[in-house]
Write a structure and sequence with these properties.
Blueprint lengths: L20 H13 L7 H8 L4 H5 L3 H4 L10 E4 L5 H9 L7 E3 L3 H13 L6 E2 L15 E5 L8 H10 L9 E14 L2 H4 L11 H13 L2 E10 L2 E11 L1
Length: 243
């Protein structure tokens, strides 16, 4: 089972493989960071990543920016948390393509709002469940989620992602993309792996088949990739919307 920092509570259970007590405890602690302890989320993220959280988050860059370093049109970030990536996207965006953020936690909305205000940046944000997004059909080119909780693989979440992504312009090929970064983070340092740190670990092989099946059922062609960042490898899951 993947371990992650974004324990955003959602309306439905994703029904991924059963969690043991340590995983449940870990997710409970993460949920606290997403609500009453939201003010400390950035610090904890920095600590558990040995100061590399910003670099890890930017692993999404090659998918959400074009060759000239400009943000692709109409990007939605699900579970934007404290708004770090949303702020970066807003800074890179042209005036006509401000990114949009969706987040359920009021505490995270407050933190992100203050951060955007300090940086004099603008990004429209909504408070809603990922399983019930208040957007019209086909309005986004990219939906991105970094270090998400398992709700991202809830079938209803995936169906909603497919719904809000643009269809193919000519009715052929592929449409918009769903990008999930950091669903797992694996270590390459032997002695650290033996510590069984809760934030790190690679899912069992059956997990990949389940995720691929769920994305395919929602109408996505799935690609799994990994990026090496020093002593860790980050996961990248790309779902390309099909006809």
């Amino acid at each position: 089972m993947t371990k992650n920092m974004s324990a955003q509570p959602q309306k439905r259970n994703s029904a991924l493989p059963t969690l043991d007590w340590s995983a449940r405890l870990y997710l409970w602690a993460c949920e606290r960071l997403y609500h009453e302890l939201a003010w400390g989320y950035d610090l904890v993220s920095w600590l558990v990543s040995w100061g590399q959280w910003t670099h890890w988050r930017r692993a999404a860059g090659q998918y959400v920016y074009d060759a000239d370093g400009r943000l692709r049109q109409h990007v939605l970030e699900i579970g934007f948390g404290t708004g770090e990536l949303l702020a970066e996207l807003a800074q890179a965006a042209a005036a006509q393509s401000s990114p949009v953020g969706l987040e359920l936690s009021p505490a995270m909305h407050n933190v992100a709002s203050a951060k955007l205000h300090r940086r004099r940046l603008y990004a429209p944000r909504v408070r809603a469940f990922a399983q019930h997004m208040p957007f019209a059909d086909g309005v986004f080119d990219t939906v991105v989620s970094t270090f998400p909780a398992p709700y991202i693989f809830d079938p209803q979440t995936l169906q909603e992602c497919a719904r809000v992504l643009r269809p193919c312009a000519d009715g052929r090929g592929t449409g918009g993309q769903l990008l999930i970064v950091g669903m797992w983070v694996s270590l390459h340092v032997g002695w650290l792996r033996r510590l069984n740190l809760p934030f790190y670990g690679r899912p069992a092989s059956g997990w990949f088949e389940l995720v691929e099946q769920r994305l395919a059922q929602a109408g996505f062609a799935v690609t799994f990739a990994e990026q090496r960042h020093g002593a860790v490898t980050l996961s990248i899951i790309q779902g390309q919307k099909r006809d």
